[in-house]
Write a structure and sequence with these properties.
cell membrane; flagellar rotation; cell inner membrane
C-alpha cells in the first residue's frame, strides 16, 4: 500500500502584505490609547518649550485677549515693508524679497500690544522670510505658509501658543514596492490620526491675529 502523500505546505504569506499588517497594527495602537498618549506628550513638550528660555521671557508680561466678536469691524495694522535676503538655492545667485504685510487683528487692544512689541515682531518676521527660498515664495502655497508663520509669530508676542504641528508617524510612511491599495490604506490611517490630533488641540484659545494680508510681494 502506497504511503499517503504529505499535505502540501501552505504558501507563505507575501512579505509586503505581512509588513503592511504590522504597520497598520502599529497605527491602530497609535489611534487608540497610544495615539492619545502621544498627543498628550506632544502637548506637554510644546508647553514646556514655551515656558523655558526666550519663550518665557517674551511672554511673561503678555496680555490676555478675549475671543474676537464678529459684530465688531476688523482692525488692520500695516507694517513697514520688509526687504530680506532669501535662503540660497544651489546653482542660483542671491535672491531677495520685498514684502509689505498688513495684519488683521481682533481688537484695538491687540493693535496697541503689537505696536509695543513691534521691534521683536519685525525681527521674527525677518527670520521667517529669510528661511524661505525664492522657489517657495513664488508659489501660492509658499505665500500661504509664510502668512501662517507670520500670524504665529505675531500671536506668540501676544501670549498665544500655537498648537504643535502634526507629525506623520514613521509606521505610516509608504515603503518602496507597496501596492497602490496598500498606500491607500496607510493614507486612510494617516487621515484618521491627523483628525484625532486636530480634535485634541482645537479647544485652545484663538490667535488674536486673525489674518495676514500681503499688500505687495516681489521676489528678485
Amino acid at each position: 500500500m502506497a504511503a499517503k502523500e504529505a499535505p502540501a505546505e501552505a504558501a507563505p504569506p507575501k512579505k509586503g502584505k505581512k509588513k503592511l499588517i504590522i504597520i497598520i497594527a502599529a497605527a491602530v495602537l497609535l489611534l487608540g490609547g497610544g495615539g492619545a498618549a502621544a498627543l498628550v506628550m506632544m502637548k506637554k513638550k510644546a508647553a514646556a518649550a514655551e515656558e523655558g528660555g526666550e519663550g518665557k521671557a517674551a511672554q511673561a508680561d503678555a496680555p490676555k485677549f478675549k475671543a474676537p466678536d464678529p459684530k465688531n469691524p476688523p482692525i488692520f495694522v500695516a507694517l513697514e515693508p520688509f526687504t530680506v535676503n532669501l535662503k540660497p538655492e544651489p546653482g542660483l545667485g542671491d535672491k531677495f524679497a520685498q514684502i509689505s504685510v498688513t495684519l488683521e487683528v481682533a481688537a484695538k487692544e491687540v493693535e496697541d500690544a503689537l505696536k509695543l512689541r513691534m521691534p521683536i515682531l519685525r525681527n521674527e518676521i525677518l527670520f521667517a522670510i529669510a528661511d524661505k527660498t525664492a522657489a517657495e515664495l513664488l508659489t501660492n502655497e509658499g505665500k500661504q505658509a509664510l502668512g501662517m508663520d507670520i500670524a504665529s509669530a505675531a500671536g506668540k508676542q501676544l501670549g498665544w501658543q500655537a498648537p504643535p504641528k502634526f507629525v506623520v508617524p514613521p509606521q505610516l510612511m509608504p515603503q518602496p514596492g507597496m501596492a497602490p491599495e496598500q498606500v491607500a490604506q496607510l493614507e486612510q490611517m494617516k487621515s484618521m490620526l491627523e483628525k484625532q490630533h486636530r480634535e485634541q488641540f482645537k479647544s485652545g484659545s484663538p490667535n488674536p491675529v486673525l489674518a495676514v494680508h500681503f499688500a505687495s510681494f516681489i521676489v528678485h
